[in-house]
Fold this protein.
Amino acid sequence: MLTTRPRGTNDILPGEVEKWQQLEEVLRKVAALYGYKEIRTPVFEHTELFQRGVGETTDIVEKEMYTFTDRGERSLTLRPEATASVVRAFVENKLFALPQPTKLYYIGPMFRYDRPQAGRYRQFHQFDVEVFGSNSPTVDAEVIAMAMDIYEWLGLKGLKVELNSVGCASCRPVHRQALQKHLEAKKDELCPTCQSRFERNPLRILDCKNPPCQELVKEAPTIDQHLCPECKESFEAVQEQLKALGVPFHLNPRLVRGLDYYVQTAFEIVAEGIGAQSSVGGGGRYDGLVEQIGGPALPAIGFALGMERILLAMEQQGLTIGKEASFDVYIAPLGESAQIPSAVLAQRLRKAGLAVERDYLKRSLKAQLKAADRFLVKYTVIMGEEELKNNQVVLRDMHDSSQLVLKLDEVEGYLKQELGKEDKGK
Ligand code: AMP
Protein backbone atom coordinates (compact mmCIF):
# COMPACT_ATOMS: atom_id res chain seq x y z
CA MET A 1 0.00 0.00 0.00
CA LEU A 2 2.67 2.46 1.04
CA THR A 3 4.41 2.18 -2.29
CA THR A 4 1.33 1.96 -4.49
CA ARG A 5 -0.66 4.93 -5.71
CA PRO A 6 -4.47 4.79 -5.44
CA ARG A 7 -6.18 2.97 -8.31
CA GLY A 8 -7.02 5.22 -11.23
CA THR A 9 -4.40 7.87 -10.43
CA ASN A 10 -1.15 8.62 -12.21
CA ASP A 11 2.28 9.91 -11.34
CA ILE A 12 3.48 12.30 -13.99
CA LEU A 13 7.22 11.83 -13.97
CA PRO A 14 10.04 13.96 -15.36
CA GLY A 15 10.26 13.08 -19.03
CA GLU A 16 6.45 12.97 -19.19
CA VAL A 17 5.77 16.18 -17.32
CA GLU A 18 7.36 18.27 -20.08
CA LYS A 19 4.54 17.12 -22.39
CA TRP A 20 2.01 18.36 -19.87
CA GLN A 21 3.77 21.68 -19.53
CA GLN A 22 3.79 22.17 -23.28
CA LEU A 23 0.17 21.10 -23.61
CA GLU A 24 -0.76 23.61 -20.92
CA GLU A 25 1.23 26.26 -22.76
CA VAL A 26 -0.73 25.63 -25.98
CA LEU A 27 -4.03 25.65 -24.06
CA ARG A 28 -3.21 28.94 -22.38
CA LYS A 29 -2.06 30.45 -25.64
CA VAL A 30 -5.20 29.52 -27.55
CA ALA A 31 -7.39 30.61 -24.62
CA ALA A 32 -5.73 34.04 -24.74
CA LEU A 33 -6.20 34.25 -28.52
CA TYR A 34 -9.92 33.79 -28.01
CA GLY A 35 -10.14 36.25 -25.12
CA TYR A 36 -10.50 33.87 -22.16
CA LYS A 37 -9.19 34.69 -18.67
CA GLU A 38 -8.08 32.04 -16.22
CA ILE A 39 -10.07 31.21 -13.09
CA ARG A 40 -9.00 28.82 -10.29
CA THR A 41 -11.55 27.34 -7.93
CA PRO A 42 -11.18 24.92 -4.99
CA VAL A 43 -10.64 21.21 -5.56
CA PHE A 44 -13.59 20.44 -3.28
CA GLU A 45 -17.00 22.05 -3.00
CA HIS A 46 -20.19 21.49 -1.01
CA THR A 47 -21.67 18.21 -2.22
CA GLU A 48 -24.99 19.92 -2.86
CA LEU A 49 -23.43 22.04 -5.60
CA PHE A 50 -22.81 18.97 -7.76
CA GLN A 51 -26.05 17.25 -6.77
CA ARG A 52 -28.00 20.30 -7.89
CA GLY A 53 -25.67 21.43 -10.64
CA VAL A 54 -24.70 18.21 -12.39
CA GLY A 55 -28.03 16.52 -11.60
CA GLU A 56 -29.21 13.99 -9.00
CA THR A 57 -29.92 11.27 -11.55
CA THR A 58 -26.66 11.45 -13.51
CA ASP A 59 -24.05 8.68 -13.36
CA ILE A 60 -21.58 11.21 -11.98
CA VAL A 61 -23.72 12.05 -8.95
CA GLU A 62 -25.23 8.61 -8.44
CA LYS A 63 -22.09 6.54 -8.81
CA GLU A 64 -18.89 8.48 -9.27
CA MET A 65 -18.39 11.20 -6.69
CA TYR A 66 -15.69 11.26 -4.04
CA THR A 67 -17.79 12.54 -1.18
CA PHE A 68 -16.63 12.85 2.42
CA THR A 69 -17.67 14.44 5.66
CA ASP A 70 -15.14 16.84 7.13
CA ARG A 71 -14.41 17.31 10.81
CA GLY A 72 -17.12 19.97 10.95
CA GLU A 73 -19.72 17.46 9.72
CA ARG A 74 -20.03 19.13 6.31
CA SER A 75 -20.54 16.99 3.25
CA LEU A 76 -17.89 17.91 0.71
CA THR A 77 -17.05 16.44 -2.69
CA LEU A 78 -13.88 16.42 -4.79
CA ARG A 79 -15.04 18.14 -7.94
CA PRO A 80 -16.01 15.66 -10.68
CA GLU A 81 -16.07 18.45 -13.28
CA ALA A 82 -15.43 22.17 -13.40
CA THR A 83 -18.58 23.83 -14.73
CA ALA A 84 -20.60 23.74 -11.50
CA SER A 85 -17.63 25.19 -9.58
CA VAL A 86 -17.03 27.94 -12.12
CA VAL A 87 -20.73 28.85 -12.09
CA ARG A 88 -20.66 28.93 -8.28
CA ALA A 89 -17.63 31.23 -8.37
CA PHE A 90 -19.24 33.39 -11.06
CA VAL A 91 -22.32 33.86 -8.87
CA GLU A 92 -20.56 34.13 -5.50
CA ASN A 93 -18.10 36.75 -6.76
CA LYS A 94 -20.84 38.60 -8.67
CA LEU A 95 -18.95 38.41 -11.93
CA PHE A 96 -22.36 38.80 -13.57
CA ALA A 97 -22.28 42.47 -12.55
CA LEU A 98 -19.36 43.05 -14.97
CA PRO A 99 -19.98 43.79 -18.64
CA GLN A 100 -20.92 40.53 -20.35
CA PRO A 101 -20.02 38.16 -21.86
CA THR A 102 -17.53 36.73 -19.39
CA LYS A 103 -15.12 34.19 -20.84
CA LEU A 104 -13.26 31.99 -18.38
CA TYR A 105 -10.94 29.03 -18.68
CA TYR A 106 -9.71 26.49 -16.23
CA ILE A 107 -7.00 23.81 -16.08
CA GLY A 108 -6.94 21.26 -13.28
CA PRO A 109 -7.60 17.81 -11.88
CA MET A 110 -11.09 16.30 -11.62
CA PHE A 111 -12.14 13.23 -9.64
CA ARG A 112 -14.58 10.50 -10.57
CA TYR A 113 -14.97 7.04 -9.12
CA ASP A 114 -14.96 5.56 -12.62
CA ARG A 115 -13.79 2.09 -13.67
CA PRO A 116 -10.16 2.73 -14.61
CA GLN A 117 -8.90 1.70 -18.04
CA ALA A 118 -6.77 3.25 -20.77
CA GLY A 119 -7.97 6.86 -21.04
CA ARG A 120 -10.25 6.65 -18.01
CA TYR A 121 -8.92 7.51 -14.59
CA ARG A 122 -10.18 8.46 -11.16
CA GLN A 123 -8.07 11.58 -11.10
CA PHE A 124 -7.82 13.13 -14.54
CA HIS A 125 -7.26 16.61 -15.90
CA GLN A 126 -9.48 18.88 -17.88
CA PHE A 127 -9.07 22.11 -19.75
CA ASP A 128 -12.37 23.81 -19.42
CA VAL A 129 -13.86 26.99 -20.92
CA GLU A 130 -17.07 28.74 -20.04
CA VAL A 131 -18.78 31.73 -21.67
CA PHE A 132 -21.47 33.53 -19.68
CA GLY A 133 -23.98 36.09 -20.88
CA SER A 134 -24.84 35.29 -24.48
CA ASN A 135 -27.23 32.85 -26.07
CA SER A 136 -26.13 33.72 -29.58
CA PRO A 137 -25.46 30.69 -31.81
CA THR A 138 -22.30 32.57 -32.83
CA VAL A 139 -20.88 31.77 -29.40
CA ASP A 140 -21.81 28.08 -29.72
CA ALA A 141 -20.07 27.86 -33.08
CA GLU A 142 -17.04 29.80 -31.85
CA VAL A 143 -16.62 27.57 -28.79
CA ILE A 144 -16.69 24.43 -30.96
CA ALA A 145 -14.33 26.01 -33.47
CA MET A 146 -11.97 26.96 -30.66
CA ALA A 147 -11.90 23.37 -29.39
CA MET A 148 -11.00 22.19 -32.89
CA ASP A 149 -8.43 24.95 -33.18
CA ILE A 150 -6.69 23.63 -30.05
CA TYR A 151 -6.39 20.18 -31.60
CA GLU A 152 -5.06 21.79 -34.75
CA TRP A 153 -2.40 23.68 -32.77
CA LEU A 154 -1.37 20.35 -31.33
CA GLY A 155 -1.19 18.77 -34.79
CA LEU A 156 -3.98 16.25 -34.13
CA LYS A 157 -5.82 14.99 -37.18
CA GLY A 158 -8.96 13.02 -37.92
CA LEU A 159 -11.06 14.26 -35.02
CA LYS A 160 -14.81 14.32 -35.38
CA VAL A 161 -17.31 16.76 -33.95
CA GLU A 162 -20.59 15.06 -33.00
CA LEU A 163 -23.35 17.59 -32.65
CA ASN A 164 -26.87 17.53 -31.27
CA SER A 165 -29.49 19.76 -29.75
CA VAL A 166 -30.90 18.35 -26.52
CA GLY A 167 -33.83 20.78 -26.55
CA CYS A 168 -35.06 22.99 -23.77
CA ALA A 169 -37.56 23.04 -20.91
CA SER A 170 -40.44 23.35 -23.35
CA CYS A 171 -39.57 20.56 -25.81
CA ARG A 172 -37.89 18.10 -23.49
CA PRO A 173 -41.09 17.00 -21.68
CA VAL A 174 -42.57 15.92 -25.03
CA HIS A 175 -39.49 13.84 -25.76
CA ARG A 176 -39.50 12.49 -22.24
CA GLN A 177 -43.04 11.24 -22.67
CA ALA A 178 -42.26 9.60 -26.00
CA LEU A 179 -39.26 7.92 -24.43
CA GLN A 180 -41.25 6.61 -21.47
CA LYS A 181 -43.89 5.28 -23.84
CA HIS A 182 -41.21 3.49 -25.87
CA LEU A 183 -39.51 1.92 -22.84
CA GLU A 184 -42.68 1.14 -20.83
CA ALA A 185 -43.05 -2.46 -22.04
CA LYS A 186 -39.38 -3.32 -21.44
CA LYS A 187 -38.94 -1.38 -18.25
CA ASP A 188 -38.10 -4.52 -16.25
CA GLU A 189 -35.11 -5.26 -18.48
CA LEU A 190 -33.40 -1.98 -17.56
CA CYS A 191 -30.63 -1.97 -14.94
CA PRO A 192 -31.82 -1.09 -11.40
CA THR A 193 -30.46 2.47 -11.68
CA CYS A 194 -32.29 3.05 -14.94
CA GLN A 195 -35.48 1.55 -13.55
CA SER A 196 -35.36 4.22 -10.89
CA ARG A 197 -34.56 6.81 -13.57
CA PHE A 198 -37.60 5.79 -15.61
CA GLU A 199 -39.89 8.09 -13.63
CA ARG A 200 -37.36 10.59 -12.32
CA ASN A 201 -35.34 11.32 -15.47
CA PRO A 202 -35.79 8.89 -18.37
CA LEU A 203 -33.45 10.92 -20.60
CA ARG A 204 -30.57 9.69 -18.46
CA ILE A 205 -31.27 6.13 -19.61
CA LEU A 206 -29.96 7.20 -23.02
CA ASP A 207 -26.60 7.83 -21.39
CA CYS A 208 -26.34 4.61 -19.32
CA LYS A 209 -23.13 2.67 -19.92
CA ASN A 210 -24.79 -0.73 -19.25
CA PRO A 211 -24.97 -2.77 -22.49
CA PRO A 212 -28.56 -4.07 -21.92
CA CYS A 213 -29.80 -0.49 -21.39
CA GLN A 214 -27.86 0.68 -24.44
CA GLU A 215 -29.55 -2.07 -26.47
CA LEU A 216 -33.01 -1.05 -25.24
CA VAL A 217 -32.60 2.60 -26.20
CA LYS A 218 -31.24 1.85 -29.67
CA GLU A 219 -34.64 2.25 -31.29
CA ALA A 220 -35.90 4.91 -28.88
CA PRO A 221 -37.33 8.17 -30.27
CA THR A 222 -34.68 10.88 -30.57
CA ILE A 223 -34.94 14.50 -29.49
CA ASP A 224 -34.66 15.92 -33.00
CA GLN A 225 -38.20 14.67 -33.63
CA HIS A 226 -39.49 16.88 -30.82
CA LEU A 227 -37.49 20.12 -30.91
CA CYS A 228 -39.57 23.29 -30.44
CA PRO A 229 -39.32 25.98 -33.16
CA GLU A 230 -36.92 28.08 -31.07
CA CYS A 231 -34.50 25.21 -30.45
CA LYS A 232 -34.73 24.17 -34.07
CA GLU A 233 -33.89 27.67 -35.25
CA SER A 234 -30.93 27.99 -32.91
CA PHE A 235 -29.65 24.53 -33.88
CA GLU A 236 -29.81 25.42 -37.56
CA ALA A 237 -27.98 28.68 -36.94
CA VAL A 238 -25.17 26.87 -35.10
CA GLN A 239 -24.78 24.45 -38.00
CA GLU A 240 -24.77 27.24 -40.55
CA GLN A 241 -22.05 29.08 -38.66
CA LEU A 242 -19.94 25.97 -38.22
CA LYS A 243 -20.10 25.46 -41.96
CA ALA A 244 -19.06 29.06 -42.52
CA LEU A 245 -16.11 28.56 -40.16
CA GLY A 246 -15.10 25.42 -42.02
CA VAL A 247 -15.61 23.11 -39.02
CA PRO A 248 -16.97 19.75 -40.22
CA PHE A 249 -19.48 18.02 -37.91
CA HIS A 250 -21.75 15.00 -37.79
CA LEU A 251 -25.26 15.22 -36.43
CA ASN A 252 -25.82 12.62 -33.73
CA PRO A 253 -29.38 12.74 -32.39
CA ARG A 254 -28.46 10.18 -29.70
CA LEU A 255 -25.83 12.37 -28.09
CA VAL A 256 -27.13 13.43 -24.67
CA ARG A 257 -23.93 13.92 -22.59
CA GLY A 258 -23.64 12.81 -19.00
CA LEU A 259 -24.66 15.99 -17.24
CA ASP A 260 -28.18 17.24 -16.67
CA TYR A 261 -27.58 20.92 -17.17
CA TYR A 262 -27.30 20.96 -20.95
CA VAL A 263 -29.94 22.62 -23.13
CA GLN A 264 -29.91 23.03 -26.91
CA THR A 265 -26.36 22.65 -28.25
CA ALA A 266 -24.48 19.57 -27.04
CA PHE A 267 -21.31 18.30 -28.67
CA GLU A 268 -18.57 15.82 -28.28
CA ILE A 269 -15.20 15.54 -29.99
CA VAL A 270 -14.11 12.04 -30.79
CA ALA A 271 -10.66 10.70 -31.71
CA GLU A 272 -10.48 7.39 -33.46
CA GLY A 273 -7.74 4.95 -32.53
CA ILE A 274 -7.37 5.71 -28.83
CA GLY A 275 -9.57 2.84 -27.71
CA ALA A 276 -12.99 2.68 -26.12
CA GLN A 277 -12.56 6.03 -24.36
CA SER A 278 -12.57 7.98 -27.58
CA SER A 279 -14.16 11.23 -26.41
CA VAL A 280 -11.38 13.80 -26.14
CA GLY A 281 -13.71 16.63 -25.25
CA GLY A 282 -17.28 17.72 -24.99
CA GLY A 283 -19.58 20.46 -23.93
CA GLY A 284 -22.74 22.34 -24.53
CA ARG A 285 -25.07 25.11 -23.56
CA TYR A 286 -26.39 25.36 -20.01
CA ASP A 287 -28.67 28.38 -19.98
CA GLY A 288 -30.54 27.55 -16.76
CA LEU A 289 -27.62 26.68 -14.49
CA VAL A 290 -26.55 30.15 -13.33
CA GLU A 291 -30.08 30.86 -12.14
CA GLN A 292 -30.44 27.42 -10.60
CA ILE A 293 -27.33 28.02 -8.53
CA GLY A 294 -28.69 31.32 -7.25
CA GLY A 295 -27.51 33.87 -9.82
CA PRO A 296 -29.42 35.88 -12.40
CA ALA A 297 -30.97 34.22 -15.46
CA LEU A 298 -27.89 34.34 -17.69
CA PRO A 299 -27.26 31.98 -20.59
CA ALA A 300 -23.94 30.13 -20.76
CA ILE A 301 -22.01 27.56 -22.74
CA GLY A 302 -18.80 25.64 -22.17
CA PHE A 303 -16.68 22.65 -22.95
CA ALA A 304 -14.09 20.45 -21.30
CA LEU A 305 -11.17 18.68 -22.93
CA GLY A 306 -9.66 15.59 -21.32
CA MET A 307 -5.92 16.24 -21.17
CA GLU A 308 -4.84 12.60 -20.66
CA ARG A 309 -6.83 11.62 -23.73
CA ILE A 310 -5.35 14.43 -25.81
CA LEU A 311 -1.87 13.19 -24.91
CA LEU A 312 -2.93 9.61 -25.72
CA ALA A 313 -4.28 10.69 -29.10
CA MET A 314 -1.06 12.60 -29.79
CA GLU A 315 1.00 9.54 -28.95
CA GLN A 316 -1.17 7.46 -31.27
CA GLN A 317 -0.55 9.89 -34.09
CA GLY A 318 3.19 10.00 -33.44
CA LEU A 319 3.10 13.65 -32.44
CA THR A 320 5.69 14.70 -29.95
CA ILE A 321 5.51 17.71 -27.81
CA GLY A 322 7.80 18.21 -24.92
CA LYS A 323 11.48 17.58 -24.84
CA GLU A 324 13.42 16.98 -21.69
CA ALA A 325 14.66 20.17 -20.17
CA SER A 326 18.34 20.48 -20.94
CA PHE A 327 20.97 22.54 -19.20
CA ASP A 328 23.21 25.20 -20.68
CA VAL A 329 26.21 24.51 -18.48
CA TYR A 330 27.57 21.85 -16.18
CA ILE A 331 29.90 22.82 -13.37
CA ALA A 332 32.52 20.29 -12.35
CA PRO A 333 34.33 21.19 -9.10
CA LEU A 334 37.40 19.11 -8.30
CA GLY A 335 38.45 18.86 -4.68
CA GLU A 336 37.32 20.42 -1.44
CA SER A 337 38.48 23.97 -2.05
CA ALA A 338 36.46 24.14 -5.30
CA GLN A 339 33.15 23.48 -3.57
CA ILE A 340 32.28 27.01 -2.45
CA PRO A 341 33.53 28.77 -5.61
CA SER A 342 31.45 26.32 -7.68
CA ALA A 343 28.33 27.09 -5.64
CA VAL A 344 28.95 30.82 -6.09
CA LEU A 345 29.50 30.47 -9.85
CA ALA A 346 26.40 28.26 -10.28
CA GLN A 347 24.26 30.81 -8.50
CA ARG A 348 25.73 33.70 -10.49
CA LEU A 349 25.10 31.96 -13.82
CA ARG A 350 21.55 31.00 -12.87
CA LYS A 351 20.82 34.60 -11.93
CA ALA A 352 22.11 35.55 -15.38
CA GLY A 353 19.44 33.28 -16.87
CA LEU A 354 21.49 30.17 -17.65
CA ALA A 355 20.27 26.68 -16.76
CA VAL A 356 23.01 25.18 -14.64
CA GLU A 357 23.52 21.67 -13.34
CA ARG A 358 26.49 20.71 -11.22
CA ASP A 359 28.14 17.89 -9.35
CA TYR A 360 27.13 17.49 -5.71
CA LEU A 361 28.88 14.19 -5.06
CA LYS A 362 32.56 15.12 -5.32
CA ARG A 363 33.01 12.60 -8.10
CA SER A 364 36.05 12.13 -10.31
CA LEU A 365 36.46 14.38 -13.34
CA LYS A 366 35.70 11.43 -15.61
CA ALA A 367 32.40 10.70 -13.82
CA GLN A 368 31.46 14.38 -13.89
CA LEU A 369 32.10 14.70 -17.62
CA LYS A 370 29.95 11.64 -18.18
CA ALA A 371 27.14 13.30 -16.20
CA ALA A 372 27.59 16.49 -18.23
CA ASP A 373 27.20 14.46 -21.43
CA ARG A 374 24.02 12.93 -20.11
CA PHE A 375 22.58 16.42 -19.55
CA LEU A 376 23.43 17.36 -23.14
CA VAL A 377 25.17 20.58 -22.12
CA LYS A 378 27.30 22.45 -24.59
CA TYR A 379 29.84 23.57 -21.98
CA THR A 380 31.33 22.26 -18.76
CA VAL A 381 33.19 24.57 -16.39
CA ILE A 382 35.95 22.53 -14.77
CA MET A 383 37.04 24.08 -11.49
CA GLY A 384 40.31 22.48 -10.47
CA GLU A 385 42.12 23.47 -7.30
CA GLU A 386 45.28 24.54 -9.12
CA GLU A 387 43.48 26.85 -11.60
CA LEU A 388 41.34 28.33 -8.85
CA LYS A 389 44.44 29.46 -7.02
CA ASN A 390 44.91 31.82 -9.99
CA ASN A 391 41.20 32.64 -10.21
CA GLN A 392 40.95 30.63 -13.38
CA VAL A 393 38.77 27.81 -14.65
CA VAL A 394 38.83 25.49 -17.65
CA LEU A 395 35.92 25.73 -20.05
CA ARG A 396 35.33 22.54 -22.01
CA ASP A 397 33.31 22.51 -25.20
CA MET A 398 31.45 19.21 -24.90
CA HIS A 399 30.79 18.99 -28.64
CA ASP A 400 34.40 19.02 -29.83
CA SER A 401 36.20 18.43 -26.49
CA SER A 402 38.31 21.59 -26.96
CA GLN A 403 39.25 23.40 -23.78
CA LEU A 404 40.25 26.92 -22.92
CA VAL A 405 41.35 28.66 -19.76
CA LEU A 406 39.22 31.58 -18.64
CA LYS A 407 39.35 33.99 -15.73
CA LEU A 408 36.59 33.20 -13.23
CA ASP A 409 35.20 36.70 -13.82
CA GLU A 410 34.99 36.18 -17.55
CA VAL A 411 32.92 32.99 -17.43
CA GLU A 412 29.50 34.63 -17.21
CA GLY A 413 30.10 37.08 -20.06
CA TYR A 414 31.71 34.44 -22.27
CA LEU A 415 28.91 31.90 -21.79
CA LYS A 416 26.16 34.44 -22.23
CA GLN A 417 27.68 35.56 -25.47
CA GLU A 418 28.38 32.05 -26.78
CA LEU A 419 25.03 30.59 -25.79
CA GLY A 420 23.21 33.71 -26.95
CA LYS A 421 24.82 33.31 -30.37
CA GLU A 422 23.78 29.68 -30.41
CA ASP A 423 20.17 30.55 -29.63
CA LYS A 424 19.93 33.00 -32.50
CA GLY A 425 21.49 30.56 -34.90
CA LYS A 426 18.94 27.84 -34.10
P1 AMP B 1 -17.35 15.40 -19.30
O1 AMP B 1 -16.99 16.32 -18.17
O2 AMP B 1 -17.90 14.08 -18.83
O3 AMP B 1 -18.17 16.07 -20.34
O4 AMP B 1 -15.97 15.02 -20.01
C1 AMP B 1 -15.22 15.90 -20.78
C2 AMP B 1 -13.94 15.22 -21.21
O5 AMP B 1 -13.18 14.87 -20.06
C3 AMP B 1 -14.17 13.90 -21.91
O6 AMP B 1 -14.37 14.12 -23.28
C4 AMP B 1 -12.88 13.17 -21.64
O7 AMP B 1 -11.90 13.57 -22.58
C5 AMP B 1 -12.49 13.66 -20.29
N1 AMP B 1 -12.84 12.68 -19.23
C6 AMP B 1 -14.03 12.49 -18.64
N2 AMP B 1 -13.97 11.53 -17.71
C7 AMP B 1 -12.69 11.09 -17.71
C8 AMP B 1 -11.97 10.10 -16.95
N3 AMP B 1 -12.56 9.37 -16.00
N4 AMP B 1 -10.66 9.90 -17.24
C9 AMP B 1 -10.03 10.65 -18.19
N5 AMP B 1 -10.66 11.59 -18.91
C10 AMP B 1 -11.96 11.82 -18.69
